[in-house]
Design brief:
α3 packs across α4. It contains six helices and three strands; from the N terminus they run ααβααββαα. It holds the Pfam family MarR_2.
Amino acid sequence: MRVLGRLSRVTRIVERELKSLFSEFGLERGEFDVLATLRRGGASDGMTAGMLARSSMVTSGAVTNRLDRLVAKGYITREIDPANRRAVIVALTPAGRDLIDRAVAAHLDNERRILAALDQDRQDDLAAALRALLLSLGDEATDPRPLGDP
C-alpha cells in the first residue's frame, strides 16, 4: 500500500505541475505530445496522422481532435500526401516549431526541478524499478526518446 499510495500521490502532483506548465504555453498535454513528437521526428516534411496515433498510443479520434485544435491555433498543417492520397501529412508551422522549442526547454527545466531531490543514481534506479513494474503489468511500450535528444 505504501508503494501504490505514493505512486498515486506522485502521479497527481506531477500531472498538476505538467498541466500548469503546458497552460503557460496555451497547450493541453495531448497537444504538447503531438508537437513534441513532430519535433522529435526531425523531418521537415512531417509525419502521417497514423504515425502520430501510434506514437501517442491514443485512438485516431483523439489524435484528430488534437490535430484540429493545433491547426486552429496555427501550430501545424495537415496536407494530403501526394504520394498516397489516403494519407495525411502533419507538419509543424514555424510558429509551432518556435512554441514547442520554448515549451520543451521549460518542460525539461520543470522535470529537473521535480526530480531535484533525487541524484542521478537514484533517478536511474527509480526508472529501472518502474520499468520492471510496467513490464510485469503487460506494458510493452518503448520509452520515448528524451526530448532533449536530437
